[in-house]
Fold each of these.
Amino acid sequence: MHELSIVASLFEIIEEKAQEKGSTKIISVKLQIGKLSGVVPEFLITAFDMYKKDTIAQDAELEIEEVEHIEVADSDGPGNCVMIRVCDGSRTTVFTAFGMRGKPSQDVVGEVVNLAKDFLASGAAIDRFLADQLLIYMAIAKSGCYTTNELSSHLLTNMETIKRFLPVDFSVQRQKEIYRISCRSA
């Protein structure tokens, strides 16, 4: 019954996010699951109700939205995917992990939970997957900065590529667990 491990991971994120925001009570948790995910919504609700006792979410209701299956005719993939969407008033960040043959669903859940936990614990403004995509907009404006939790190879490659085409310089400053990426005119 992998619903228990999903809910356990969900509560790690709920409690971490609530602590970060100084929240003392959670009134609602919204979760989207694919209809073909193998997750039984009733088991998920039961597991949620067991876990929520004596937590800041003890009065919360779990709202489950079942997402329709989308047929992709030319896909060779096994089709399972876990997404976590973290919303906090001013932004929404989405984390995704994909399964593959022989990879247990608990490992897929663990992978996406670790991505979300690492990002949330860092205090960075944006995650590593968005960091490389924002560079071009800063370069066009010839200014800007943000913080991210990881320097990906995509980020570093995009910096060098953009500098070959536009008269800008990028700087990277490590600030404890995060990196501050800045752009200025060259």
Note: The domain at 3-122 is CATH 3.30.2320.50 (hypothetical protein PF0899 fold).
Amino acid sequence: MDQLTTKPTIKCTKCQTDRDPSWYPRDRRRRSWRTPWCRVCLRAASRLRRTGLTQEEYDALMAKQDGRCGICRMPFADEIPARIDRSAVGAVRGLLCPRCKVGLSTFRDDLERLRAAVGYLERTA
């Protein structure tokens, strides 16, 4: 019998939660072929390493924005993931949907460019 199907649940070594094996990414270097941390813990560790934002801070930010984009107020879902918006100096400003994050980065966080774009839209509408 296959190693992956012999154990119905696996305990995450970080959060100590029993989860289905599908919650653990494959890792061919390990004997069990699964990572010791579940996807939730791996994602939180990656976010902490990249942005310095802990899971608790991320959850607080998500609750503060009611689970919606900071600009367009679109609710976050699996198909519309939350993206962390940071200033040029690296300070976290909030959570945005992918479209709004691309829009801000296109204007390079320049208020004059954004005002010019709004003026253009108002003149041509």
Note: The radius of gyration is 20 Å.
Amino acid sequence: MSSSKGTSATPTDAQRGDGLAIEYLTVSYGRAAIVSDLTVHIRRGEIVGLIGLNGSGKSTLLRAVAGVIDLFGGRIERGTIFFDSERASVRENSGATTIAFSPDGGRLFQSLSVEDNVLASLRSARTPATREDARTILKKLLPRPPDLRKSGGELSGGERSLVSVARTLVSRAPCILLDEPAAGLAHSAKANLASTLKQEASIAGRCIFLSAHDLEWLDTFADRVLGIREGSVSLDVRASDERLSLLKEFVSSGKLSAH
């Protein structure tokens, strides 16, 4: 899932603590470094949002942490990814599902039913989810869920995204990565998604790392919001009365500098 390069500045296990630790990560496509020497720590039970302009490195970062960057033509040049102070790749190799990822757009199996899409990638897990588990999480995310016999190809864009989110949540992975999960959702569906994620973080103790363009929505529930620009984190702000203004200013300043 990651490559590593030793450095005397690397934090100790005690400093990393519980949760996700991304350290000195550099990811490239060809000769271009899209994520550069980036370090982020996310505690268990914490929801962290990720904002930035298109092309700033949000999706690249999430794909790299999820261990699928090679499928998109990228590669990790250096850096290490830990979970609970242990290399994430070691945990995965031991059979423990550590990180579950929902890519942008959902990317479901077009011919499988809604229910089977939720369960498809979990067959090899130590404690595979059941159909009842799938139905329960789908009802949380979709108060009026689609016919579970429908195929992935028959769903709307918003439904595909939420079914993909359901697949990550039913995995029981302690770390959830979501790339633009609210894209195309109505206001009520976004509110329901935010409520579900807050429950998963606070009750199940999961760390949740998600990207979003809707700043107002993200500001309602994220514990922290990171702003990424040119592959590096240049904003890290916790909840406050002024946070939304800071997020808007960050995005606006990025648009100005891009022209």
Note: The two ends are 36 Å apart (CA to CA).
